[in-house]
Amino acid sequence: MHIYGIKNCNTVKKALTWLEENNISYTFHDFKKEGVSEDKLHAWEEQTGWEPLVNKRGTTWRQLSPAEQSAVVDASSANQLMGAKTSVIKRPVIENPKGGIILGFDEAEYTAKLK
To answer: Which of 3, 5, 9, 94 is catalytic?
Structure first.
C-alpha cells in the first residue's frame, strides 16, 4: 500500500497512526521531499476527478491570491498548481491495494476499505 502526503500534516499523522495500530504495512511518499508526477495526478483523477484532489480548505489554498484560485478551472490548471505547490493536494492519498484511492482520513472508511 502506498500513502502519499506530508509527514508533519495532522491528518496524515492520524492516518499513519491508524494504519500502525491496525498492523497495516505501507510505503510513505512525502510530497515535500519527492514531489508528485503529472502521471500520478492523472491516475488519481481518473478515479476521483481533479476537484477532490485540490484541498480548498487548507492553508496553502487560502494563501493563494484570488487570481491564482480562480485560475484553477480544470484538470490541467489544477495539475499545474498541485505540481508546483504539493501542499495543496488533499492528504493523505492512499492507493488501496484492493483498488481505488482514499482521500483524507475517515476511520470508518479505513475500517471498511482497508481491513
So the answer is: 9
